[in-house]
Design goal:
The structure holds 2 protein chains of 2 kinds.
Chain A: H1 4-26, H2 35-40, E1 42-50, E2 60-68, E3 74-79, H3 84-95, E4 99-107, H4 114-117, E5 118-128, H5 129-134, E6 138-145, E7 151-158, E8 178-184, E9 187-188, H6 194-210, H7 212-215, H8 218-249
Parallel strand pairs in A: 6-8
Antiparallel strand pairs in A: 1-2, 1-4, 2-3, 4-5, 6-7
Chain B: H1 2-14, E1 31-33, E2 39-44, E3 53-58, E4 62-67, E5 73-78, E6 87-93, E7 96-101, E8 106-111, E9 116-122, E10 128-136, E11 139-147, E12 150-155, E13 161-166, E14 174-179, E15 185-192, E16 196-203, E17 209-216, H2 223-226, E18 227-230, E19 234-239, E20 244-249, E21 257-260, E22 275-277, E23 290-296, E24 299-306, E25 309-316, E26 321-325, E27 332-338, E28 343-350, E29 362-365, E30 373-382, E31 388-396, E32 400-405, E33 409-415, E34 421-428, H3 433-443, H4 449-479, E35 503-509, E36 513-518, E37 524-529, E38 537-545, E39 555-562, E40 568-573, E41 592-601, E42 607-613, E43 618-621, H5 625-634, E44 639-644, E45 649-655, E46 661-668, E47 674-680, E48 692-694, E49 700-703, E50 709-716, E51 725-732, E52 738-745, E53 747-756, E54 759-766, E55 771-782, E56 801-809, E57 815-818, E58 829-833, E59 839-843, H6 857-861, E60 890-895, E61 902-907, E62 911-916, H7 931-961
Antiparallel strand pairs in B: 1-62, 2-3, 3-4, 4-5, 6-7, 7-8, 8-9, 10-11, 11-12, 12-13, 14-15, 15-16, 16-17, 18-19, 19-20, 20-21, 22-23, 23-24, 24-25, 26-27, 27-28, 28-29, 30-31, 31-32, 32-33, 34-35, 35-36, 36-37, 38-39, 39-40, 41-42, 42-43, 44-45, 45-46, 47-50, 48-49, 49-55, 50-51, 51-52, 53-54, ...
The chains are: A alpha+beta, B mainly beta.
Membrane topology (chain B): Single-pass type I membrane protein
Keywords (chain B): Disulfide bond, Endoplasmic reticulum, Glycoprotein, Membrane, Signal, Transmembrane, Transmembrane helix
Subcellular location (chain B): Endoplasmic reticulum membrane
């Protein structure tokens, strides 16, 4: 009885898994006809940045994020170079250990219409301006989405991330952004993995099955020990009463 | 199957941790206190003269019986929490107590001697209004239950329903009370607010309506609040607007008689709703014709109704509380009146005449750290000479019960506020005087060689003195029999022990009462009641200064915040003595959004508390010049975050030098998809000993130890079981960077989270498989550390490696916490409070995402347990053996001075304190350690070397002579 049951569980859970995945696949809330024009028409939102010596944020456009909505959303970025004025300002901000901030508007990637895609408010993030300068404007920006395709957060890090106080002499290094961009959807957390465990159990029982030595029952294997123990107990039990009787007599 | 058992055995062998206590250790390191909660109904067992029981039904859905001599629980029944277990009514007759539970859902009868259930019947669910015992010819055989639309009669012996009748015109009439005077009729009293009273009389035998009358009463809106049945079925009501009493004979009249209070020479205190208090000593007989009328907060009158006339028997002014009691045939009334500021006096009066009974004065001393008396429960009895004696149980605003005997001896007290602990902290006890002296010597700044020498000599002399005193005490105590040597815990004797195992537990309860409890014995060292606490207050307790900074006293700060308005107050106190500190906390006119303790200290070693108000302005406490200067220097590295779960917004701020703030990051989770349920950071006093884990191939996997990491738990708004999910986000609290984002699909809350070191453990309900599951996330930097000297959130460009694994757990859980030790060397355990009342100590080793599916040589080398999808509950993991802890709401852990030992307090309805040793007591010698053997071996070796040395010398000498 023990063997078929785990197997059944495995089969049932696999079937269930397929049913469920296909169910999720079907139910992404859109009609089939719409897929073509949403999947391939990207839309763009501004990526803004701000770096001020007095730390009062003034956001200006840094580039445009072109987002492609759909089941596997993608993103690309077009951005211009930093102007002469901005370069000096960035170095000034870095000198006083100010912040380099970015922001993107809140976006819903799964919506069909342009009006539904953008929502009120922004998502902001920052790095230290000196890190931006010392990394020669090479940054990594990731947009984090939730399960249904809303962008919930943006993060920016630079490579290298440290501020070591090295001077960036060459103005050319601060002209072009070297940006790596990605969209990070949530990871599906694993559930308890029963199927593999059951499979492994079965394998081991099969292995056991091949070895006839192991297949003997408990009693068949250890009958001599049990018998010996029983005899020992009997002997000790029968030896005791005379001793007790002797004590009574005295 | 055999294979499975073998595997389990292997697991057990791999981590052979034996944690059960031995029989002789029970109660040695642990204690439990059981509570019942705020009392709603109390009845003294009067059917036997010598009985010493009081029955309590409480707001926490507990029905219990106390021993009136000692105040200990005789038995206790804990019902479901919430409205399903709510106790609506408690009626007592003889040995039976009838309980109405769950808004009229269940009717239960209990045997009060042993606390056993006689019977239970389930009624139609419906809004319960009132219940009463119904008797006839001096025997009570039935209980009547009145609901919104039906009235039913049940046998007291077995609960069977005798009859059930629909109430006439129940759509318009609001039936509120049921009454029976023992004449074979049951009256249902209802009211159409501001119109008329409806009275329906049912026959006891078959439930037939005998008579149905309606009486004009345009001034009445609530019968239970303003009416009572007095004497031979006279419904008496009081109308505060007109200032008059109304009487109505239920048997005959159809018109109310108005008796203006002015005609009796009485007047209602303005703004006070008068209350009538009547008594019905025997349910089979009509109530007494004497009753109390309360006209003001401290004004009571004993009145008598005879032949439609009201006579004033006695005027009690001032009198705060009154109560009737019936020992034997005569009824007496107990009246509590204020004596002076710190005491109240109680007196007994004959109910019939209003005369004061001789020698019945009882003094009740008010606790200056307690609340005002709220309710009076009187246990009266006849003495041998037929005079009346009595004891009273006084219930005060702080949920405390005090039982007093004449002439004022407090027999016992119970602090029922402790059944609702909200938050707690453990504070180290202060050093003894001598230790403090030494500390003080090293603490002060050096001023000259000579003075230092003198100081050293003086402290040595003090130490010598203390030692001699200690020796003398030991000698003195040794002559006394052991039972007489008492170890009373008083404030004077409180001092830190060698291993800092004894601490002060500071507990904050929902009622606003603070307690200081000695963790070794569980005795309450101090209490402090804070009045004016809003009912929906949120509390946050912080330790600003520990006991380590002698001569500055330790200091705790309690932030009390009104959840609706956001307005907050601070209460600053000494956690060892409970006294309010002389430090005046700042007034907080603005609603407070966030509070945070900084590791900064002012010149008096008090940690700085920052409070952020709704204008995003920051104020510091203490706010001395020194602190402000430090804050200005540190401002650019002080970050904090705010959470607005209504809008799903997490935002990070940085402090500016002028104590204003600037928004630096923002994460917004749309509330139409998910809502933020909880946020867990790491505990600030946590130490991690090892930076990494040694793998099977001797390489090191470094842990990602970000002290600013936050674990954010979200639940989906869509609760359909196919689409619901829970989300776990790991966010850096400084930069707002989302380190990891995971969703657990087809699951729902409640989620319990523990976040510590480099791991997050959470528990949830899987709707797919209908079971509870545990999941663990661990974060690793990889094989190399990015910057091994210091961790900075601003400079960690690489995302950590994330490992996750899930397990099935065979029980739901009610609270979870991780053990905590001094240096973090000891392995960690999770302490899981189960609804069954057990507290499970689950080794973290079982929740390790690196548990391999297939066992390899390397994983065996690393001591990893092979993966098994189910976590077993092993009975020896229960740290509270048979000491069930009801309704665990929280578990608190604190490190002790011993690295192996962690102090644990579980609180809920009960409080349980114990110690756990997650890696066994590796730093403690066993009790049965053989000192004799080791010392004799040492001595033997010593002498052997001496002798052999001597022999060697002789030999050398002899050789030299040759």
């Amino acid at each position: 009885m023990a063997r078929p049951l785990p197997f059944k569980i495995a089969v049932v859970s696999t079937v269930l898994f397929f049913v469920c995945t296909s169910y999720v696949y079907c139910n992404n809330g859109r009609r089939v006809g719409d897929v073509m024009d949403t999947e391939f028409s990207g839309f763009s939102v501004p990526l803004e940045h701000s770096f001020e010596v007095d730390e009062i944020a003034k956001f200006r456009v840094r580039g445009a994020l072109v987002l492609k909505a759909g089941r596997e959303p993608s993103v690309s970025l077009t951005q211009s170079q930093l102007s002469e004025e901005d370069r000096t300002k960035l170095k000034e901000v870095a000198a006083v250990d100010g912040l380099y901030r970015i922001r993107v508007p809140r976006v819903f990637l799964q919506a069909d219409r342009q009006t539904e895609r953008q929502m009120e408010g922004y998502l902001t993030s920052f790095v230290r301006a000196c890190a931006m300068v010392e990394s020669h404007l090479s940054d990594v920006i990731s947009l984090h989405t939730d399960v249904s395709g809303y962008v919930i957060g943006v993060s920016i890090v630079t490579f290298p991330g440290a501020c070591r106080g090295t001077e960036v002499e060459d103005e050319v290094d601060l002209e072009v952004f070297n940006t790596t961009l990605s969209i990070m959807p949530p990871v599906n957390a694993p559930g308890p993995d029963t199927a593999l465990f059951v499979e492994r159990m079965e394998q081991e029982t099969e292995k056991k099955g091949k070895n006839p030595q192991e297949q003997k029952s408990f009693f068949a294997k250890y009958w001599y020990l049990i018998l010996g123990g029983a005899i020992f107990l009997m002997v000790t039990n029968s030896a005791q009463p005379p001793a007790g009787g002797g004590r009574e007599q005295s | 199957m055999e294979k499975l058992i073998l595997l389990c055995l292997k697991c057990i062998l791999l981590c052979s941790i034996v944690e059960a206590v031995f029989e002789d250790q029970v109660g040695k390191f642990d204690w439990r206190q059981q509570y019942v909660g705020k009392v709603r109904f109390a009845h003294f067992d009067t059917h036997m003269q010598s009985s010493k029981k009081v029955l309590l039904a409480t707001e926490n859905n507990v029905f219990a019986s106390l021993n009136t001599r000692t105040g200990e629980l005789l038995w206790r029944h804990v019902d479901m929490t919430g409205p399903e277990g709510n106790i609506d009514a408690l009626l007592q007759y003889g040995q039976d107590a009838v309980l109405m539970v769950g808004n009229g859902r269940q009717l239960r009868s209990w045997d009060i001697n042993v606390g056993g259930l006689n019977w239970e019947i389930v009624l139609d669910s419906g809004s319960f209004q009132s219940a009463c015992l119904v008797g006839q010819q001096d025997f009570v055989k039935h209980v009547a239950v009145l609901k919104k639309t039906v009235i039913s009669l049940h046998y007291l012996s077995n609960g069977h329903q005798k009859w059930v009748e629909n109430l006439p015109e129940s759509e318009t009439v609001d039936y509120q009370a049921v009454y029976s005077g023992g004449n074979g009729e049951v009256y249902a009293l209802g009211v159409v607010p501001h119109s008329h009273i409806a009275i329906v009389a049912y026959s006891l035998e078959d439930g037939e309506i005998i008579k149905q009358i309606s009486v004009e009463a345009p001034w009445l809106s609530n019968i239970q609040a303003s009416c009572a049945v007095i004497g031979q079925g006279m419904l008496t009501c009081v109308d505060s607007a007109a200032g008059s009493l109304y009487t109505l004979d239920l048997h005959e009249q159809s018109q109310m008689t108005q008796i203006p209070l002015q005609s009796l020479g009485l007047e209602v205190t303005p703004g006070f709703q008068p209350v009538l208090v009547s008594t019905q000593p025997n349910p089979a007989r009509p109530p007494l014709s004497e009753f109390f009328l309360q006209l003001g907060p401290e004004h009571h009158l004993l009145l008598q109704l005879s032949d439609g006339q009201i006579v004033t028997l006695r005027d009690f002014k001032p009198a705060m509380l009154v109560a009737f009691a019936t020992p034997g045939e005569k009824t007496v009334a107990a009246v509590m009146s204020p004596k002076n500021k710190t005491a109240c006096s109680l007196n007994l009066f004959s109910a019939e005449s209003g005369r004061r009974l001789l020698d019945t004065t009882l003094i009740f001393n008010l606790d200056p750290n307690g609340g005002k008396p709220e309710k009076l429960h009187v246990q009266a009895f006849l003495k041998k000479d037929d005079s009346v004696g009595y004891r009273v149980m006084v219930q005060t605003e702080d949920h405390m019960l005090t039982f007093i005997q004449q002439p004022g001896r407090v027999m016992w007290t119970r602090d029922e506020a402790l059944s609702d602990v909200v938050t707690m902290e453990m504070v180290d006890l202060p050093l003894t005087g001598t230790q403090a002296e030494l500390e003080g010597e090293f603490g002060k700044k050096a001023d000259g060689l000579l003075s230092m020498l003198l100081k050293r000599l003086s402290s040595q002399v003090i130490l010598l003195q203390a030692w001699i005193a200690h020796l003398w005490k030991m000698f003195y105590d040794a002559r006394k029999p052991r039972s007489q040597v008492k170890n009373d815990v008083t404030i004077e004797t409180l001092s830190r022990d060698e291993f800092n195992l004894q601490k002060m537990m500071v507990m904050v309860t929902a009622s606003g009462k603070l307690f200081g409890i000695d963790s070794k014995t569980g005795s309450i060292v101090w209490r402090h009641y804070l009045d004016n606490i809003p009912s929906n207050a949120a509390f946050k307790l912080m330790v600003q200064r520990t006991t380590a900074h002698f001569p500055h006293p330790p200091q705790c700060t309690l932030l009390i915040k009104d959840k609706d308005t956001g307005l907050a107050t601070l209460h600053v106190f000494n956690p060892i003595f409970g006294r309010k500190s002389h430090v005046t906390p700042p007034a907080l006119p603005q609603p407070i959004l966030q509070s945070l303790m900084l590791p900064l200290m002012d010149q008096d070693y008090a940690k700085v508390l920052l409070l952020v108000d709704d204008q995003y302005k920051v104020s510091a406490f203490p706010s001395t010049k020194n602190v402000l200067q430090q804050l200005q220097e540190m401002a650019s590295s002080i970050f904090f975050y705010l959470v607005d779960s209504n809008q799903g917004r997490l935002s990070g701020y940085r402090l500016r030098t002028d104590l204003s703030t600037e928004l630096i990051w923002e994460v917004v989770m749309p509330t139409e998809v998910q809502k933020i349920v909880s946020i867990k950071g790491k505990r600030p006093n946590e130490h991690v000993h090892s930076q990494g884990r040694v793998m099977g191939d001797r390489s090191v996997l470094y842990k990602y130890l970000n002290p600013n990491l936050l674990a954010v738990v979200t639940e989906s708004t869509d609760l359909h079981q196919e689409r619901s999910f829970i989300g776990i986000l790991l966010i850096d609290g400084v930069t707002g960077r989302i380190i990891h984002e995971a969703v657990q699909r087809r699951t729902r809350g409640p989620v319990h989270v523990v976040h510590s070191e480099n791991w997050v453990v959470y528990e949830y309900w899987s709707t797919k498989s209908r079971r509870n599951e545990f999941s663990v996330i661990e974060l690793y930097e990889g094989m190399e550390l990015y910057n091994s000297t210091v961790f900075s959130s601003l400079d960690r460009p690489h995302a950590p490696q994330v490992l996750q694994q899930s397990y099935i757990f065979p029980s739901s859980i009610s609270a979870m916490e991780a053990t905590l030790t001094e240096k973090g060397i000891t392995s960690r355990h999770l302490l899981v409070g189960l609804p069954s009342g057990g507290i499970l100590s689950l080794p973290k080793m079982f929740l390790d995402p690196r548990r391999p599916e297939i066992v390899t040589e390397q994983s065996r080398e690393e001591n990893l347990i092979p993966y098994a999808p189910e976590l077993l509950i092993r009975t020896e993991w229960f740290i509270n053996y048979n000491q069930t802890v009801s309704r665990v709401r929280g578990i608190y852990t604190a490190p002790s001075g011993l690295e192996s030992t962690c102090l644990v307090v579980a609180y809920g309805l009960d409080i349980y304190q114990t110690r756990v040793y997650p890696s066994k007591q590796f730093d403690v010698l066993k009790d049965d350690y053989d000192y004799m053997l080791i010392s004799s071996v040492l001595f033997a070796l010593f002498f052997a070397t001496m002798i052999s040395k001597r022999l060697a010398e002789v030999k050398l000498l002899n050789r030299a002579w040759r």
